[in-house]
Design a protein that fits this description.
mainly beta; SH3 type barrels; OB fold (Dihydrolipoamide Acetyltransferase, E2P); five-stranded antiparallel β-sheet; 53% strand; flat
């Protein structure tokens, strides 16, 4: 389905230069001289390469519809990630490289969406946020909580993130899986 480049939104999947790309960021630019254009950051599926592309406002691109099927994460054997299809109960094993660094956010039993194009899995859509436990953080320094400063912390999955000064070891926090940033303290 052809769409105008002005209608592209982050998260959409398009076909461009004979490959599939996920739109990461779009920016409409109207320079002082010359015609308006759309500056778009794209991420290649499934390999993850990045491309910054400039489209004229009159251009159109092919939007790709992907089949989304819910799968439950079972386990990681080191090379492959194993998922259970929630509808057919078939087990699917995917190369770890398909998720890359995002694989650290997978938890046993987590339900994700497997994105399939023409019968081939091309991406795994994780939940936007996960709740993790802080296992290591510097102690709170009195008076430091008034400033908008952050300190390093290590989560139970080994990932290092920056957290506000009031977060201590043992605290459960909500983390954004897209960029690995602290969102808020988890509700107990």
């Amino acid at each position: 389905m052809k769409i105008s480049v002005n209608d592209m939104k982050p998260g959409m999947v398009i076909e461009h230069r004979g490959r599939l790309w996920r739109v990461v960021k779009t920016e409409h630019v109207k320079p002082g001289k010359g015609p308006a254009y759309q500056q778009v950051e794209l991420k290649g599926l499934p390999e993850g390469t990045k491309l910054n592309e400039r489209f004229r406002a009159a251009d159109s691109v092919e939007r790709v519809r992907l089949e989304e099927t819910p799968h439950q994460f079972l386990y990681d054997d080191g090379e492959r990630l194993h998922f259970l299809n929630q509808e057919t109960f078939d087990e699917v094993a995917l190369d770890r490289s398909l998720l890359g660094e995002r694989a650290v956010w997978l938890e046993e039993g987590m339900v994700v969406n497997l994105l399939v194009h023409e019968g081939r899995p091309i991406d795994v859509e994780l939940p936007e946020t996960v709740v993790r436990t802080v296992v290591q953080a510097d102690p709170v320094v009195k008076g430091q909580t008034a400033a908008a400063s952050y300190k390093p912390a290590v989560l139970d999955n080994g990932v290092r993130i920056m957290v506000p000064p009031h977060i201590e070891s043992g605290a459960r926090v909500v983390v954004d899986t897209r960029d690995g940033t602290y969102v808020e303290r988890a509700r107990e």
